[in-house]
Inverse folding.
């Protein structure tokens, strides 16, 4: 039993960069901007954060530099898509490729060099609690931050007036404009803030979870984050759940490698991605109109619980996601 | 608040939408602004509400000239605009929508906002549920929410752009009562419309715009003779009354026949329908929003399959055959939302004709453009064969949609065929539909506008709370009787007599 809690704690820890990045992406997509550069940004930020922390010996500076890189890439995306009216997806995709290559080019001197890492900091007293202590209070600051950022994002979006404005930007920017909101400025703000979180997530890889720097260090997790945000319905708690699920799959895959040594490592590495997409697609299939029609043919007693479950699963994209806004 | 514009000019490219307008609107009154589509009404209102900025001239609120940089500025200055399609956030609840980007200091808390909303709703007689999502509400309810939002945010001037389009007669009555009260409290109401009866009923003054200018210069006190206003709006042509055509007698089988049909859509179920829709008729479906008109239209279009019973088209059993089979049998459906599920905005008229071509791998562009050119001439559409549909005005889009209906169509189902059109465009559309009817087509349309139902129907079917009444010949029906039936008064007796 004790081993199960330790494993679960490992899942929570492994998911921390994904959760931070996913919250950043959720914020900018809620404001109507798709930051498709996420995977590249994470790599470039991971490399920069590691390099800065290594040369200055200061971890906080490393994270700050990573956040800055994330914010800067987001600002470039904003310049092309929000100011110059180019396609968010095209620009984001090019940025993703550019940042990936830039990270391996600029990061070559730092590859496979031992460097600083965020120290393990169990929280006194709380860490000794049975079960809860193991699960939540024997980690390091980055992982604690990943626990806090989910309720913080949810509160921001659903509990504050700023959240109302952010969601209005993604749902109907024209309505926000009619209320006197400067749509472009606020979209920039959310995009850049989300980008900074993505940058921090990158550093969470290189300075904490997978310490050091190597070619393609984050192994495509940025792309899975993009998928998780979509299938998570842009809702912070569901998105976080998706991240934890993915981390769990990864850990299961790694474990099975030692149990079944005959399986090629490539399969073990890729399997979580495939499984994750499969799970997410199943969830969305269950809430599709086709499933609704199927349910409507069932006896009345079954319909109500099934429909309410489906309604809870259903996720609709922000109506103006990816669409440019032009002042009338 | 007293508002005035002086020499206000706004150009869009070569078109002068507002040409040196000088008008003023006094506080505490309801001011009608009349004009056909494209006369410059919307431009003037958008200038006043800060959505666009004038090229020349100035806007004066209470004797202070104002430069409005955006709609937020205008609302702070006290001007709020209710758009034809309310500019709210459909995914929000009523309360969230109210709080979203409200001017600072207006609502101290969520609870305060809710209390203020419920109080105002009580005073204006608008039923409202603060927790309801806006996309679950009708256009009329969303409009009420928007009016209350603007008032709570401090609007002293309320601009309403075609507010009675797409709302029910009961909602329109509630709206008018509320507007009278808002004006009586000392606020200014600008009521933009092309419906003369409404302006006559509601407004203290009227301003008529034509080609971007006020004709005659300045406001007119109401009442004014209707013919005079029509002449001001359209010139001589507009004043001509509609021509009444006697009903042709056509010996043909019914276009649609329903036998013991039960059909369900969402929460609404139509039970045990037995109807025959004869050729050569225009049949109007009257009723409150969501009383079953749309379900019936979609059933007849083959978009909804019945749970029980048979649907026959031209005598052939097409029960559950799907909308494609219905189209092949000569049934055409014109939805209310033209660009959403009617046509493809980015494609041109020629492209639409090309889409209708069957067989072969290639598109016969020459033939498609030829057809488009002929349609443009026949239906007087202001467009070229290659203009994207989205770039056309509402009236031209509607005409284009009619032009796309093949000449051998046997049944046309139209949801609010004149929605959002001015008087002249609406008459043109109806002229086309009547010509189709005279050629032996059965036209079934739904409309929230009782005048439209009374004017154009040969037979009227009243829908009430998911029940479909028997067809009543237009000659046997008065407007007041129709209004009663829509409200359910005497509906049961009518159904019993039919049995």
């Amino acid at each position: 039993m004790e081993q199960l809690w330790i494993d679960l704690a490992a899942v929570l820890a492994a998911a921390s960069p994904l959760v931070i990045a996913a919250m950043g992406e959720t914020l900018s997509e809620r404001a109507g901007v798709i930051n498709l550069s996420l995977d590249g940004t994470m790599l470039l930020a991971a490399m920069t954060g590691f390099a800065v922390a290594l040369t200055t010996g200061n971890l906080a500076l490393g994270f700050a530099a990573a956040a800055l890189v994330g914010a800067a890439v987001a600002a470039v995306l904003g310049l092309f898509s929000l100011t110059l009216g180019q396609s968010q997806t095209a620009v984001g995709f090019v940025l993703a490729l550019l940042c990936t290559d830039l990270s391996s080019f600029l990061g070559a001197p730092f590859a496979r060099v031992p460097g600083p890492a965020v120290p393990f900091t169990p929280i006194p007293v709380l860490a000794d609690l049975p079960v809860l202590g193991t699960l939540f209070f024997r980690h390091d600051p980055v992982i604690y931050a990943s626990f806090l950022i989910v309720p913080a994002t949810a509160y921001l979006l659903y509990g504050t007036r700023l959240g109302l404005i952010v969601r209005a930007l993604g749902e109907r920017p024209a309505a926000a404009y009619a209320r006197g909101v400067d749509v472009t400025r606020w979209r920039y703000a959310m995009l850049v803030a989300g980008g900074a979180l993505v940058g921090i997530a990158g550093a969470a890889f290189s300075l904490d979870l997978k310490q050091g720097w190597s070619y393609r260090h984050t192994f495509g997790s940025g792309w899975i984050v993009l998928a998780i945000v979509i299938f998570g319905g842009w809702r912070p708690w569901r998105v976080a759940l998706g991240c934890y699920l993915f981390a769990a799959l990864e850990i299961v895959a790694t474990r099975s490698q030692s149990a079944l040594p005959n399986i090629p490592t490539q399969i073990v590495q890729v399997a979580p991605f495939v499984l994750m997409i499969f799970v997410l697609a199943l969830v969305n299939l269950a809430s599709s109109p086709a499933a609704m029609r199927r349910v409507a043919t069932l006896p009345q007693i079954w319909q109500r619980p099934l429909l309410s479950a489906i309604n809870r699963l259903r996720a609709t994209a922000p109506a103006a996601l990816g669409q440019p806004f032009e002042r009338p | 608040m007293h508002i005035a514009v002086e020499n206000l000019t706004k150009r869009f490219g070569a078109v002068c939408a507002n040409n040196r307008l000088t008008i003023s609107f006094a506080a505490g009154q309801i001011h009608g602004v009349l004009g056909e589509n494209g006369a410059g009404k919307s431009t003037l209102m958008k200038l006043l509400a800060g959505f666009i900025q004038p090229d020349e001239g100035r806007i004066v609120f209470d004797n202070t000239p104002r430069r409005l940089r955006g709609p937020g500025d205008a609302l702070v200055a006290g001007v709020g605009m209710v758009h034809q399609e309310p500019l709210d956030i459909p995914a929000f609840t009523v309360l969230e929508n109210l709080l979203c980007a409200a001017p600072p200091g207006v609502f101290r808390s969520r609870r305060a906002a809710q209390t203020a909303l419920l109080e105002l709703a009580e005073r204006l007689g608008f039923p409202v549920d603060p927790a309801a999502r806006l996309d679950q509400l009708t256009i009329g309810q969303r409009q009420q929410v928007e009016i209350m939002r603007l008032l709570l945010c401090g609007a002293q001037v309320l601009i309403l752009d075609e507010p009675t389009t797409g709302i029910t007669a009961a909602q329109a009555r509630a709206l008018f009562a509320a507007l009278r009260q808002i004006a009586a409290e000392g606020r200014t109401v600008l009521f933009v419309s092309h419906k003369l009866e409404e302006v006559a009923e509601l407004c203290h003054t009227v301003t008529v715009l034509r080609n971007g200018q006020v004709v005659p210069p300045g406001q007119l006190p109401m009442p004014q003779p209707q013919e005079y206003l029509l002449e001001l709006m359209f010139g001589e042509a507009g004043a001509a009354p509609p021509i009444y055509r006697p009903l042709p007698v056509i010996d043909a089988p019914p276009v649609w026949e329903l036998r013991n049909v039960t059909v369900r859509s969402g929460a609404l179920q139509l039970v045990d329908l037995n109807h025959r829709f004869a050729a050569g008729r225009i049949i109007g479906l009257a009723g409150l929003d969501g009383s079953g008109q749309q379900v019936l239209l979609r059933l007849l279009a083959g978009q909804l399959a019945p749970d029980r019973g048979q649907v026959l088209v031209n005598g052939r059993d097409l029960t559950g055959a799907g909308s494609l089979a219905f189209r092949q049998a000569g049934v055409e459906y014109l939805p209310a939302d033209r660009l959403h599920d009617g046509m493809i905005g980015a494609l041109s008229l020629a492209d639409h004709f090309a889409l209708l071509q069957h067989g072969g791998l290639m598109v016969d562009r020459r033939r498609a453009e030829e057809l488009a050119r002929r349609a443009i001439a026949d239906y007087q559409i202001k467009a070229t064969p290659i203009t994207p549909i989205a770039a056309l005005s509402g009236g031209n889009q509607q005409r284009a949609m009619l032009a796309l209906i093949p000449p051998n169509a046997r049944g046309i189902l139209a949801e609010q065929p004149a929605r959002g059109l001015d008087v002249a465009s609406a008459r043109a559309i109806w002229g086309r539909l009547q010509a189709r009817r005279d050629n032996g087509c059965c036209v079934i349309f739904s409309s929230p506008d009782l005048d439209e139902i009374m004017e154009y129907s040969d037979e009227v079917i009243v829908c009430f709370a998911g029940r479909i009444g028997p067809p009543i010949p237009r000659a046997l029906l008065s407007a007041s009787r129709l209004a009663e039936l829509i409200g359910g008064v005497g509906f049961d007796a009518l159904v019993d007599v039919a049995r």
Q: What stands out?
A: Chain B has 18 helices and 22 strands. Residues 3-237 of chain B form a domain with the Rossmann fold fold (CATH 3.40.50.300). Residues 238-244 of chain B have pLDDT under 50 and may be disordered. Chain B has two domains: 3-237, 256-343+404-498.
